[in-house]
Amino acid sequence: MTNMTVDLVVNGTPVSETTEPRTHLADFLREELHLTGTHLGCEQGVCGACTVFVDGRPTRSCITLAATCEGAEVRSVEGFDDDALMAALRDAFKRHHGLQCGYCTPGMLVTGYDIVRRLPNADATRVRKELSGNLCRCTGYAGIVAAIMDVLENNPPLATVQPQTRTVQKSEKSAVESIGATASILSPVAAEKITPASIPTKSSLAEAPTLSRTRRFDLAATDIWNVVSDPEKIASCMPGGQLDSITDDNLLQGKCAVSMGPIKAAFAGTAKMDLNEAEKSGHVIGRGKDGLSRSQLDGMLDFKVISLPEGGAELTLDMVYKLTGPLSQFSRPTLVAEIADRILDQVAASIDALARGQEPDLTTQSNLNGLSLMASVFMGWIKRVLRFR
């Protein structure tokens, strides 16, 4: 593997180091620059111990290639010596016993800093939600929450680290090509717009997991079909969904936002939609990519609206999906099935409202909140276990 030179600014100092294209930012900071304040825990982007700022945004450094940070400003926990807000957080963590072993603390401080600067009116419930992507095995979180609330409630100093916009550097693409990636690297601050040529084929999804679901409606099949066959209407029913354009040959381009604590993904992509009006059925196949995590989602959906003999209609869905990249850790079939049911319940409620000529309830539709969905999944599992004991 050919080494490459990575140029970036770390804690205010320009850095130029030669490293392998596959080197993650956390290893780059620890091994190349000897900044060991960034801790490695799960190395899968889940525990949050490795969280640092990249261009002012909290970033999992264990799943971010150093090469994708070409030209970026990186701030690790060592880079806040003269920052008044971080000094206030450190003092509060000490006074409220917000740390024990200290392994999670660097990531907690970075996330806490982001909470204070971004959510000045946050209450304890919101702070806990924002911290849900940072795991601690010692404190029980009470001291950490108390420390952040202390800073929020006592006129916190202004944050000196703010989000920035950065354009993709040429060396980012060459880095990915060096390790044999099949897709071009994306900007950490903007999702890629996929070209029609990159839409997956049925054969590429032949061995992917499948999921079949049905939903019944107390409405005529024609009313339901009028909603599900309209790309703009069905996009408005999808939490976090946004349709950007439709071509004459039913090529759809849009995006879907997903949040998992501080992990935020914006899948931008293209899909091809074919409809059979006579049979009230359709077929959609597409691909989306997230610029920050470099994850890719390929999917195929067959749907049909059927009139029921007893009245009403049934919507059948047969889905095939394949998630690759760092976010694939959340694609275990059982978990996906449970989460899909929760999402489908929201979508079905919106379809029902539109079919009745009403506006859907969009209060929970701003994005796909993975943590709240997973919480409901786990509660469902617990209830089923207790029911059968």
TrEMBL record:
A Pfam family this chain is assigned to: Fer2_2
Record keywords, A-Z: 2Fe-2S, Iron, Iron-sulfur, Metal-binding, Oxidoreductase
Gene Ontology MF: a single term: oxidoreductase activity
Residue span, 2Fe-2S ferredoxin-type domain: 4-80
Keyword Ubl conjugation: no
Keyword field contains Oxidoreductase: yes
Name listed for the protein in its UniProt record: 2Fe-2S iron-sulfur cluster binding domain-containing protein
Organism: Sneathiella litorea
Species classification: Bacteria, Pseudomonadati, Pseudomonadota, Alphaproteobacteria, Sneathiellales
